[in-house]
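Minimal example, chain plus 3-phosphoglyceric acid.
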Amino acid sequence: NSDQFLQAIRPYGLIPVIKLEHLEDARCIGKGLCDGGLPIAEITFRSEYAEAGIALLCKEFPELLVGAGTVLTPSQADAARSAGARFIVSPGFNPSLVDHVLRTGTVIIPGVSNPSQIEWALEKGLSVLKFFPAEVSGGVRFLKAVAPVYPQIHFLPSGGISLDNVREYLALPMVSACGGSWLTKAGTAEGIAAEVRKSLNLVRGVADV
Ligand code: 3PG
């Protein structure tokens, strides 16, 4: 469930958000993430390789916590789950997608960027939400403003987060981890592992762990 998911990601404070340009990239990304010490991957349905990439990562890197991102439809959620995804992330709050994924028992993390959407999520019994797109939706100031109103919600901000601002987000008690695509941009496993180590060093001690 989402509590276990939160416990699993909290020690790292970072969620690599990945768009696979080629299926083979999954291999060097998986290796880079594992070698760098960040065994989490959100593979987005922004590319045609999402489903196969999730399956490849689950098979070749059993230690990796693999989820699906940018999931827009129930059929994408089903494909992700069959491929082995253990969490499903959507950019917005789509009630029928949320209901569908809840029925399957998989963790669903819908995106929100305003109080109405947060309340739709509360109504569904959800307490772990993506805050997206974080920077252009008010960033840290948005989170500080809504947290007193919804103290039960944990936010996973993403969208516009980088090494320049990630510490400001992780310093907030309602933020357990931030998503970002910068972690896996290097073209090699070594490059990704180096970026991951640098990022983990930067956030270590800042996150509310
Ligand atoms: C996401 O889907 O979480 C974001 O698009 C990642 O945003 P970024 O590319 O700005 O890190």
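The chain has one domain: 2-203. The domain at 2-203 is CATH 3.20.20.70 (TIM Barrel).
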